[in-house]
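Exercise 7. Predict the joint structure of the components listed below.
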Amino acid sequence: MSVVFAGVCSHAPGITGRADRADPAVRDAFYAKLDEMRQRLEASRPDALIVVAAEHFANFFMNNMPAYCMGMAESYEGPIEDEKWLGIERTRVPGNAGLSRRIIEAMLHDIDLAYAEEWKFDHGIMVPLHFLTPRYDLPVIPVNINCQGPPLTPLARAYEFGRALRRACDAQPERIAIVGTGGISHWPATPNSGVINEEWDREFLRRFLANDREALISYTDAETFRDAGQGGFEIRTFIAIAGATEGKTGELLFYAPIPIFAVGCTVATMAV
Amino acid sequence: MRGNGEVVVSLYYVQKLLYQLNRDPAVRRRFQEDRDDLLSEYQLTDEERDAIVEGNIGLLYVMGVNGQILMHYSALLGQKWEEYLEAMREGVRKYGPVRAGLYTLLEDREQTWRPDLHGNR
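Solution:
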């Protein structure tokens, strides 16, 4: 079939772990838009959901750090963090090893993609799933883009990764949904936690929603670090989704800085 | 990695220990029951070893440990979120700017602090 749904959302652990400490009005508006994303995802009747994430040293470390990795397991477990800290119970999430394998085989023509038959989800995937597939009944295929341990993949390659992912998915009979999850500007787990550069975020989202490739890939890492923090490196996940929906534009369902969640909380869909 | 791209071997092992501590219950058990034996497997300076054993989150931050690794060690030590953030700030006050790793990407280390953006807090 093809890609039937594409979108992006935030994944910060505070979204569930510190939920009781946010302004209820803003938090509930954010949750409502995540639920609208869930409804749109379900309406697309996907057979599998690919989550393009930026994990945070749950599975991958600097002893062997892939720029890109895709899961190829029958199931996954998460969250790896303390359940109470994250506010999400540990569970097993179904995968689809056969579909993973076919997508990986197709993508290897374009991208030197690593694969993993074992993968524990951290908040970077569990928080989106908590809202988008709350019954954990949709097979998930995880993707990690290294956004934590430099050297990092160039932004142009992240866009190219998205293109390759799209080509691979379009060659499969299944109906596939793709969700990217990351930043935008944030300084997670540092003394600057809670700082959000809303102006930078809105300009990035403008470029993303317009699917303006040249503008999206024009940021240098030094600029991103200065203006959007080390969490800003996670724009690679959004850029991959833009690559997977090249030529199409997006719709912003929600954006608001929520400091206790330590990120500008974002929900958006892209036309496929 | 320092700001100039120099790789700090020792920081790698500090982070590797904390990474394994965060994700592996068996490593956590050894950390409680046979700490010296566990730590002997990592190339650590005395300062790093002491910072880990004492749970000196502020110094570990200044040494360059990534917050995405450090925050889980802080939680393991029983610190609340605000205590974790304050421990890092106290570390910078006491030991100076971050010395190595991801947070030294810019030449001007002061730029890793964005007081101009703190209005959003």
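Discussion. The longest helix of chain B spans residues 9-23.
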